[in-house]
Amino acid sequence: MSRRTIPLTLGYVVEVAPRLEGLRHALAALGARRVVVITNPTVRDLHGAELAGELGALISHWHEMPDGEAYKSLDEWATVLGAVLEGRPDRDTHVLAFGGGVVGDLAGFVAATALRGLPLVQVPTTLLAMIDASVGGKTAVNVPQGKNLVGAFHQPKLVWAPLSTLATLPEREIVGGLGELVKHAVIEGEAALAALEAVAPGLARQEEIGEQIAASIRTKARIVETDPWERGCRAHLNLGHTLGHAIEAVVGFGELRHGECVAIGLLAVVRLAEELGWAEAGFSERLGTLYGQLSLPTALPAGVSSASLVRSMGFDKKRERGMVRLVIAAAPGQLSVRSVEEPALVRLAELAGASA
Q: I need a labelling partner for 56 at 20 to 30 A (CA). Which of 14, 182, 191, 250 fits?
């Protein structure tokens, strides 16, 4: 696949590129004089030499954070922030996030808070990070009260997505990323979903997956440009996430991949919408067929209770009106946000495979 440049009106571009080659030139065009690379040991072992060869002396130092969702925390943010500040950064120092979504979210929050905001460059190395976490300017860490509850909006100066890094990912990491890719296709509309269905059986081939990645990024970029502060249509990007985040919290971060949880949540919400007459008949069956072609899960692991999921989705009888907002897909490209009460949330969890 040749390089694809996706410009955003927010002031930066997303480059979907075959490799890291060309990144140094792009950074020079931004005026970067020093780069602090934040990564983890796995990514550095696999791709660090290539990045070092591309950027050379532009890298002032590296900081490795531990690998895993558990380290997207305030404690790790403080550690990484301290390491960046010890390097005495100035306004021309760029923070470069080199890794998956955990690295991107935490490094982005470090960039947002160091010197009240340092330039950020996202170099995502996983499918999920390329199509989701690296685009849109959301940075965050997890706290005991929930996922991504502490953070800031901090748009990057550049996103560089090197497809070559996907070749080193375990198959399940690719599958997890496909959950978000399906979500973007559903949001975009019939043509996007049909195009994904046409290539789904052979999507592991780089040329086809590269085209789908670019299409998915364009969808997210379009929505983010329209609503950068998440006050309107950007909420549609949460399709499948109300239940998906609850699954992550209840089952445990890492037990299921984020994209797998989103996939289960999306399918369940479409099933619920069909039952309530809000969605076209057969839409969930169509998605289930696509999930099968992409090896995505369609139901929860055994033993997850609906009560635990409802609590995690934020339902509380003491809250005003006792309702939770759900993003509903009635058909490809037809989305709305509806407030639902406890019985609908219980049914949503059941449709995902939860037990009573």
A: 14
- Report the number of distinct structural domains present in the chain: 2
Residue 238 lies in a domain: yes
Inter-residue contact 261 to 245 (CB < 8 Å): yes
Q: What is the pLDDT along the chain (356 residues), one digit of tens a residue?
A: 689 999 999 999 999 999 999 999 999 999 999 999 999 999 999 999 999 999 999 999 999 999 988 999 999 999 999 999 999 999 999 999 999 999 999 999 999 999 999 999 999 999 999 999 999 999 999 998 778 899 999 999 999 999 999 999 999 999 999 999 999 999 999 999 999 999 998 886 666 799 999 999 999 999 999 998 888 999 999 999 999 999 998 998 778 999 999 999 999 999 999 999 999 999 999 999 999 999 999 999 999 999 999 999 986 544 546 789 999 999 999 999 999 999 999 999 999 999 98
DSSP strand pairing (158-162 vs 12-17): parallel
Residues 153 and 235 both lie in one domain? no
Distances (CA, A) of 60 to 4, 39, 89, 107: 29, 14, 10, 16
Note whether residue 215 is domain-resident. Answer: no
The set of catalytic residues is 116, 138, 180, 220, 230, 234, 238, 241, 245, 258
Asked whether the beta carbons of 236 and 188 are under 8 A apart, the reply is no
Instruction: State which amino acid sits at residue 345.
Output: L
